[in-house]
Structures are given as structure tokens and as C-alpha cells.
Amino acid sequence: MRRSDLGEFEEVVLLAVAVLSPKAYSVVIAEELERETGQTVSTGAVHAALQRLEQKGYLRSELGEATPERGGRRKRLFTVTALGGRVLNDVRSVRNRLWERIVPQTILKWS
Amino acid sequence: MKPNPSPPRWLDKLLNWLVAPHLREEVLGDIHERYTLRMQRLGERRARQTYWREVLAYVRPRFIRRKPNQYPNPSHTDMLRNYLKIAWRNLTKNKAFSTINIGGLAVGMAVAMLIGLWIHDELSFNNYHQNYGRIAQVRERGIREDGRRYSNTSLPYPLATELKTSYQRFFKHILIANDPEEHILTADQTKLTETGRFIEAGAPEMLTLTMLKGTWAGLQDPHSILLSASTAQALFGNADPMGKHVKINTDMDARVTGVYEDFPHNTEFNGIKFLAPFVLWTSVNPWVKEQQWNNWFLSVYVQLQPGIDFDQVSALIKDIELNKIRNLEGAQKQVASQPQIALLPMSRWHLYGNYYEDDKGPVQMVWLIGLIGAFVLLLACINFMNLSTARSMKRAKEVGIRKAVGSLRGQLVGQFFSESFLVVGLAFVASVLLIHFSLPWFNDIAAKQLTFRWTNLYFWLAGLGFILLTGFVAGSYPAFYLSSFQPVKVLKGTLNSGRLVATPRKLLIVLQFTVSVTLITGTLIVYRQIQHAKNRPIGYDKAGLLLVKQKTADFKGKHELLRSELKNTGVVFDMAESRSSTTGITMWNGGFSRRGTGITCPNGCGTLPVSTEYGQTVGWQFVAGRDFNRAYSSDSAGFIINESFAKLLSLNNRTRTGKETAASLVGETVTWSPGSREARTYTILGVVNDMVALSPYESAIPTVFFLEDNYNWINIKLNPQVSAAEALPKIEAVFKRLIPTVPFDYKFADQEYGAKFAAEERIGKLASVFAFLAILISCLGLFGLASFMAEQRTKEIGIRKVLGASVLNLWGLLSKDFVVLVLIAFLLATPLAYYAMSDWLQKYEYRTELSWWIFAASGAGALLITLLTVSFQSIRAALMNPVKSLRTE
Asked: Distance (Å, rounded) from C-alpha B675 to C-alpha B645?
């Protein structure tokens, strides 16, 4: 597979969409990522990544319901497409294979 | 939970403006929701602090770029582009038509622009001088004995001094100058003959000379000279000329105090190669200041003081001369001519500076040429209109469909205009190229130095205006006519455009050919007139006759020596001296009487001193009597008169003894007592044929010749057996030896005589070029129309052929229409040309007749050209196989 297709941030966002599905939209994704990583994540960055992923065909979107805190504006909900799922699986299996091949004593220790 | 305080307004507004419309909803919703979440978690202050960072994250092209509209918004340019596309397709579809259209229009525009440049040059004459609007020349206006009004630029010396003493307050400058004349300039070893003027010191400032070296004050030293750049280069090469010594003729010494840029071609002073102080001239010609009111030989230029106008001053100085001479002894004749002094502003010098005030020749020429230019352009426009309307049937279906689909009439008008602008634009480009390549040639014919003003903004503006005007004129007819079709009729095929379209088209052809035939006739007559004057017997033999001007006094007293030395070379048949060259008369007098009765010379008679062998040298043709002869010393009191003078004598005598022949006049005596010399009685020795000395278009001047050592010219007749190339070096060697101070400059009499035809030949050439172009353009149009007609009648011709029509029949059928039109044009053109040309011929005393055959010839010529043009198409159509033509659908 072509790994250059999927940036690191994009991969995380794609994963987050899969996690939060079917209620994934940029605000909750950003919040989720903030919580998981402890870094500030702006909705703008997430939104841009979502658009890129949608262009590549890994995501699909539709407009969802409006809420008062959004000032009555609708949100765009994202779901992972079949292609997106396959890409995620591919990435994961590559990682897994690599992890499995690490000899136990050389596992990097941290903390 | 208290109600949501909203995030900063202005940031929202910024985002609203920044983010593309289709993303606004989700983006704004997102950051508001995020804000609310943050506020709940961290409090309003922190939420507000992080908010702008959220906003910044959206400032990226991805969110800013607008989504392209699914339904594009058609603009004006889209439709225009379509118009141009259709126009282009139409052009390339009919290549022959398009070439005729664009080529014809380009030629027409090129002619119009060339003429525009020419007129601009004529009207901007003398513009070079910055004081253009304030400079004038003083002129003497009056009435000649023959009743014609004249305006003379040569003025008497006292007039100039009178202006200076009594009227100085009106003028910034009053400058006296002599006539431009050739002088010998000597610097070290270099000798040059250059035309120059002696003028007073204010000249450089008044004429605002562009000084390359030195200043405007250069003429204040009485022994100074200003050289033109070209003269300085010729005299001194690349060395610095400032302060160098220059000898003018043999008697005037000067130092170079400045170098000015040569006067450009379209100035009155063009060709003046040096300026020297007037006082330098008078210092060696003391007679100048002694002259009275009866010698006219000076020019006076003035520049007005600011705030004063020409008419004002003209009115004040009007009677200066009359007041002075009114009571002068012997000036009755001068008073009778009612001389009035007037100022002629510089702007009028070129076009209104004629000696005869009523001769409007130059101005008429400008308007005439302008008119011709406009006409040639008009012809080209007519072609365009004609061809466009002729093709209207082909476009009619297109118009019908466009209208049916919903085109408005205005849009169709726009379409046809854009088409015509495209064609005119292409033609303009072509015409600019044409001008670029033909300008040197045109300059040659018109004796101008026109340049194409590539960098001049006004030229391009004018060009743009030109395109718009021509495009509008040429495109208006098709635009308004074609767009008026009714779609129902057109698409049903019942549109009958026959008569309706054909009539204006025919009118246009008639107009075109009227102009062409008029131009052809005019050209023929101009050439006839020139030929007529060239064939006029000139009374002497100009072949192999060399004229040398005696520029300095060094020639004096060397007559016999020069003559014998020249004859010894073997290349010279004979040599004689004279007061005038054979192509001029420089001494005019009156005061002749015979047996006590005065003989009036209407405008003065020529009185020319010659040396004994003059007759042999120039080849006089004797009607009666004999030539001067060295053997008779009494010949010094003898006259040889020309036929005109003989006629004058017999005319004055008719009352007494009846008609006299030339032969009977020989031996008669004539008393000559002009005011300026002693009265003397002369015997008539012989009568010679009139010599054409001045204009070959005017009647000859009554002239007497007599022996008197008062010569300005040397006439040398070459030995007819020797070629000029062989003879000239030998003659030059003699002159170099005997008169070493003067460079050997000579003229050929036949060339000098030929120069008298230059103006008319120029008109002839210009007229023939324009006539040729006019007929070319007309024929292009005709050719296009004929081919169109043949194409339209393909079926008809096929059927006629099947039914048995012969090729000749069909040829007649197709050509007849055009021939009739050209005949009508001929009938219209003939009186026009007759009127215009007889008016033109009126100004020549010696003129050709307007014979009927000239008109017939030009009519026949136009007819022939028409037939040739049309036949090409009609014969081709007539020869076509009817099977093929009937099968076409």
C-alpha cells in the first residue's frame, strides 16, 4: 500500500472517526484527540484533515442535526468508508508485524 | 446554566467573510460548539483566549477557496467570444471573400493613413519653432498692372528701418535678412558651396534653434557664423568647429560661434546650412543701405510682443510704404499698385504664402488629397458592406435560427458589429504593415520625409478611433439589415431579398466606379498636361549645355582667357556669359519706346546682358535677322529680341502702319530708358524664337538681349561628339587653374529645365497611384460580387444550359448587370471630371485641351477592366457542367 497517502495526523483522525462513529464530527474528534494526547487540537486542523480524507475517499460525510450551542447550525458527520477501513487495517497490520518482530529485551524502556 | 455568552463578534464576522459560503455553516457551528465546551470546562476567560487560535486554524486556502458555481454565470465576454469564434469560422470558410474583404480594406486604410500623415506634415509645417505662434513675415500686398493681387516677401530697405524706428514697441524682434543664396565656405583646405542667409542677431533666439554647440547669442559678433550640424561635419569632420576660421565667398571672414541642429524637413528654413550676421553682409555690400523704396530685395521677420495680435499690428503698419512714397518723384506706378504692408503669421507661410494671393493651390492640394484619401477609404468600406450584404442570404438561415432560439435583435447587431470589428482590426494590422513597407517609396514620390509614429500615443488613439469608425461605418449596414430578418420567413425560405438588397448594392457599385473613373480621367489629364508642356518648343538646345554660376568677383575679366582655354580642351563647342541662366530671368525692366511711343510691358520685360557667342552656345533659333557678331563693333548698341517682344512692338504699332512681320522689325530702332540707367537707342539685329525661361506653363516673357559686361552665369556647350563624363574633368581642370578660389559647381540645363515639371509630375504620380488603388479596390469588390452572383445563380445557369443556352449567352447574362452599372458611373463621372479638371487647367496659361477622347478612353478602360473582372467569374460559371450544378443541394 502507499503509505505516503496517509499522514500521521490523518491516520489518527481516521481512527478517531472509526471510534466515534456514527457521531463523529470535527468538534468531538478534536475533543477526543485532546483528551487522548494531552495536546491542544483545533477544530480547524481536524476539519482540514477530515476534508482531505474525504477527498481521498476514506471518509464519507453528511449533514447532521443542529444544536443550540452551535447557534442552530448543522454539523457535518463523518463515517469511514470501506476503503478507509481497509487502509486502517493495512496500517495496523504493518505496525503489528513490526511490533511482533521486536526482540523482548531490546524493547525500549521509558518512564 | 446561564445563557451562552457568544464568542467575540468581530472574529465571527471575519470568519464569515473569510470562509467559503458552502462551508460557513459547519465551520461556524463547530467553533461555536467548541467555544461552549471550553467555556463549560475552563471558564469564559480561557475560552475567549483560545478562541482566536481556533479561528486562525481556519485561515487556510482549503476553507477560503470558493466552490466553483455549478451553473456558470455567463458574462458579456462569453458571448463576444462566441461572436468572434463564429466570425472567424465564417472568415476561414470563405477564404477568397475574406482575402478580398480584408485586403481591400487594408489598402484603403493604408492609403487613408498615409494621406493622414501627409496632411499632418503639411499642417504642422514650421511647428519646429517654439515661437511658432508669435512669428510673422512682413509682406507687401498690392495689385499688379494685370489686375492680379500679389503678396511679396521681398521688401525695400527703408521699410525695414522704418519698422525699427517707429514700431519697435510692438515687436520682440525685427530681423532683416537677405534671400537664401549659395555661398562658398572655406575652412583651411576644404571648400563647400552651401545655401545660407545673412540675418540679424536675434534669429537664433526667435527661431529657437537647437544649439549643439555655442549659444543663441552667437550672431552678435559681426564676424561670426553659425553652422548647421551637417555643414560643420562636412567642413571640419569630427574636429571641434568652435572658434575656427571660415571664409564666406572670398571677402567675408568669420569665426564659428555655434553649431545648430539642421532644420527639419518640414520647416521653411530647411536647407539653410549656415547663418551669418546681416552686418557682415552689409559691410562688404555697402550699396544695401543706400537702396530706396524702389528696390525690393530683403526679407523681414518679426516676433510679436506678448499680448499683441497680428491683425492689430497689421492694421497699424498697413500704410507705411504708401505714406512714404506718395509724394515721391517718379513713384506714381508704385503708388498705383496700392502697396500695403501686412504680417503673415508663420502658420500660414507654407499653405498661404503664394505670390499671387488668389492662388489657393497649396491649400486646395491638401484638401484635394485629403478628399481622395477619404474617398479611397470610402470605396474600401463600400466593398465591405457590399460583400457582407451579398452574403446575407447565406447568413439569413443562421440569423433565423439565432432569433428562433431567442436572440434579441440587439444581440445580432452586436454579433455583426463584432464581426466587422474583427475584420477591420485585421485590416488595420495589415495596413500598418503596408504603411511600414511603402513609406520610403511614398516619401520618394511626395518629396517628404514622413515617419511612422510608432511611439506616439496620439497616433494609436487615432488608429483606435479609425478602427471604431471604419468598423461602425462598414458594419452598420449588415448589422442593421441582417438583424431585421423575420425568422419565420427566413426559415420557411420565402425571404425575397432580391430587389431590396440589390438596389443599395448597385448604388454602391455606381458610387465606387464614379470615383474610380473620375480619378482615372483626372490622372490622364494631368499626364497630358505635363506631356503638353514638355513638348512645348523651348527655343534653345538644352542638350549638353552646362551652366556655371559666377559666385564671386574672381570670374570678372577672365572671359577671353576662360573661353580660349575651354575651347582648347577640345571638349567644348563654345562658351558664353550671360546675366541669367537659361532657366530664369533675373533682370526685369520697362521703359521701352519706339518713335516716341511708349511700349508697355504688362509685367515687365526681361532685359538680359549676354556675351557675343551666347546665341551659338545655347542654340538660338532665328526667325529673322542675325546674331551678334564680333566683327561689328556697332553691335554693342544692338538688341536681339524674342518673338513675344516682337509681337509687343507690332501690337503697339498697329494703329500707325498696319501689321508688321518679324522680318520688317529688323533694323528698326528702339529707345530704352529705364529709370536706373541712361536712355539709349538700340537697333534690332535679329528676332529669335521664344525661350522658355520661367514656367513652361506660362506664356513667354518678352525679352531683349544685348551685349554688356554684366554677367552672372557661364554657359558651356559641350562638343556633341564627346560624352559628358569625359568632358567634365577637363573643364573642371581649366576652372581649377584659372579660378582656384571657387569650387567647380555646375548644372545641366536639361536637368534644371526638368525641375520645372517636378511639382506637376508629383501630382501626376500621386494621382496615378490613387487612381490605381481606387480601381484596384473597386475591382476587388466587383470580383467578389460577381463570384457571389455566379454562385447564387448556379441552378439557374444549369437549367438554362440544359435548355440550350450557349456559353456566350450566359456570359452576356451575367456580365450585363455590371456593365450597365459601370456605364451609369461613367455618365456621372464625366461631368464631374470635366468640371474639376477644367478648373485645374485654368491656372496654366499654356494648357492642353480637354478633348472628348480622354473621357472616352477612361470610360472604355473602366469598362474593359470591369468586363475582365466579371468575365473571369461569369465564364467559369457558364462553363460549368449542368449535371454537377443541378445536383448540388
From this structure: 20
B761 three-state secondary structure: helix
In one letter, which amino acid is B16? N
Please write the tens of the pLDDT for every residue from B575-627: 888 888 888 888 888 788 887 777 877 777 888 888 888 888 888 888 888 88
CATH of the domain at A69: 1.10.10.10
> What is the distance between the alpha carbons of residues B225 and B222, in angstroms, rounded to a whole number?
9
Number of domains in chain A: 1
| Sign of the torsion angle spanned by Cα atoms B660, B662, B664, B665 | positive
Read off the C-alpha cell for B141: 500686398
Nearest residue of A to residue B54, measured between CA atoms: A42
Question: Does residue B480 sit in helix, strand or coil?
Answer: helix
Determine whether the interchain pair B32/A71 forms a contact, defined as Cβ–Cβ distance below 8 Å.
Answer: yes
Residue A80 has pLDDT above 90, yes or no: yes
Residue span of the structural domain in which A90 resides: 3-106
Task: Give me the residue spans of the domains in chain B.
Answer: 9-64, 132-359, 363-533+758-887, 545-749
Q: Determine the Cα–Cα distance for residues B83 and B416; give it in Å rounded to an integer.
A: 8
Please report whether residue A111 resides in a domain. no
Q: Is there a contact between B32 and A48 if contact means CB atoms under 8 Å apart? A: no
- Residue B1 reports pLDDT greater than 70: no
Size of interface A-B (CB pairs under 8 A): 71
Residues 21-80 of A with CB under 8 A from B: 25-27, 30-31, 40, 42-45, 47-48, 51, 63, 66-71, 73-76
- Judging contacts by C-beta atoms under 8 Å, the chain B residues touching residue A44 are 27, 31, 54-58, 60, 63
Who among B33, B55, B56 is closest to A27 (CB)? Answer: B33
- Percent of chain B's residues with pLDDT above 90: 6
Residue A100 lies in a domain: yes
* B762 and A CB contact within 8 Å: no
For an interface test with B, give the residue of A39, A41, A46, A47 to mutate (most B CBs within 10 A).
Answer: A47
The cell for B806 is 450557349
pTM of the entire predicted model: 0.70
| pLDDT confidence bin for A17, thresholds 50/70/90 | very high
Kindly report the average pLDDT of chain B as a whole number. 84
Q: ipTM beyond 0.95?
A: no
∠ Cα B220 B234 B281 (to 5°): 35
Contacts of A23 in chain B (CB under 8 A): none
Locate the chain B residue with the closest alpha carbon to A40.
Answer: B50
**A8 is a domain residue:** yes
Give B4's contacts in chain A (Cβ within 8 Å): 68-69
